[in-house]
Every structure is written in C-alpha cells, then in structure tokens.
Amino acid sequence: MRLNPFNTGNIKVGSTGGAGKAGGIGCGTLVLAALGYFIFGADPLQTIGMVEGVQQQSAGPAPANEDEQALCTSNQYATETCNALESLNDTWPVLFEEQGIGGFRQPTLRFATSSRFNTGCGAASTGMGPFYCPADETIYIDTGFYDQLGRMAGNGGDFARLYVVAHEYAHHIQYITGLSGQIRSAQQQNPRRANQLNVIMELHADCYAGVWAGRNRNLIERGDFEEGMAAAAAIGDDTITGGRVSQESFTHGTSQQRMEALRLGMETGDDLQCDARYFG
C-alpha cells in the first residue's frame, strides 16, 4: 500500500516504559487473557471484560513522548506503522464529519521497547502481540510481531501489517463512540453470550479496518487485497487453535468470518455497512 511519509505533527507517538505495577489490571490476568485466547492482533480487554467483568480503569500519567522522528524511523516496521497511523488519523475524522458525529480524538501509538511494560490498563508484555488499551486510548505495537505474522500468513507484504494497525485503531473508534461499552454491558448482563458478543466486536473491527483500506483505494497496490485476506485467514480462531477449541469458545471469529468482514469493509468503504452487518 502506497502511504505518504508520516507527518509528525499529525500523530502522537511514544515508546513504552519499564515494567512494574500500574493502575488497572494485573499482568498475570492480562497475559493469561491474551495467550489463552488470541495473542495475534488482540484487544486483551475484550477478553478481560468477559472473564472478570473489569470496567475501564482510569489511566495514570502517560510516559512523555520521545522524538517522533527517531521512533518512526527506527526500523522499516516502525515507519510503516507511523504511516498507517497518519493515514488512519486522516481517514476517520472525515467519516465522523460525514455522519455528523462529534467527539473524534486520535489515539496514541506506543512502540514496545522492553519485554514487559506498563499501560493504562496494567502491566503487559510483548508476547501479547499488538493491542489497544482504552484506559489510555493507546495502541501498543511490538514491531517484532510482524515477522511472526509474516510467517503465519505466508507472506511478508506490508498490507498484512497495516491491517493489524487498522484493526487496533478500529477498537479505538468503537471505544470513543461508546460501542465497546455497550458490548461490555451486554456481556455482563448475559455471560453466556460473552464469547459470541466478543466475536461480533472483533469482526466489526476487521470490517472497520477494511473501510480504511476501501477509503484509500487509490493507494492500494497489486497484491494488497490478497495479503489482507491471507492475514485474516491466518489469525482466525479455528486456524490458531488448530481446531482444538470449540466454536463456542472463539473470541475473534473463524478465518472465513474474518476474511468476509475485511472484504466487506474494503469493497464498500462504508462503516455504516459494517454497523448494519454486525449490529443491525
């Protein structure tokens, strides 16, 4: 995907601090939730909210931003991620404006620079993969994860990596629009449907990731669509678990479901179609 070099004035980027106790949920719960369900491109709070009924925690002071230029040019993956974030920051406010929705605000991007680190949601580790923390409205990325994604998806294309960023950004959109809070409330009221609701939430985020790509169709290159489909197929619950987990225990959807969600967003470029499909 052809993305313009990032403009540091349009993004908020930093790196993670060291490990230790932080406000929110303990590290053990956070890591268990991520590893036990979906460590690839996950939003661990979705699982934590389902298992423990945890409410959003108030974030402590965020680490001071470091030099964005240095962070975003530290390696190829970091540059790609910053470019994706800038594009997402340009795309989603337009969607909000078109629909007369207020309250848009950008998330922060933080690169994991240590194996364990603090977040507004508690202590975390790089083994969890990328995730979004609503308490500090931050996307956490360990760029080393992208090599693992490439092995899983069977390709090293950049669009598969950008899809991950767009998926986590979608969780931010769900949070600031109040959708994730509604789902969390529904999970608490009906625990038996918790997994099912989580799957819907994740497929909706996949669809939103596709909307971003569809809205930037002029930047799509040959092979990007196939890279996205391969990534979605590689990180379905059925593929990751090798069929060892029943569908009732799925939290993100099957490979086929994830591919269909991404395809819907990409082909329509319309977030309202995603809303109708998964919450209509």
TrEMBL record:
- Keyword DNA repair tagged: no
Superkingdom of this protein's organism:
Bacteria
Per the record, membrane topology reads: Single-pass membrane protein
Localization of this protein = Membrane
Molecular function in Gene Ontology: metallopeptidase activity
Q: Which UniProt keywords apply?
A: Hydrolase, Membrane, Metalloprotease, Protease, Transmembrane, Transmembrane helix
**Listed GO biological process terms:** proteolysis
Pfam families given in the database record: Zn_peptidase
Q: Which InterPro entries match?
A: Uncharacterised_pept_Zn_put
This one is known as Zinc metalloprotease
- Native organism is Aurantiacibacter gangjinensis
Give the lineage.
Bacteria, Pseudomonadati, Pseudomonadota, Alphaproteobacteria, Sphingomonadales
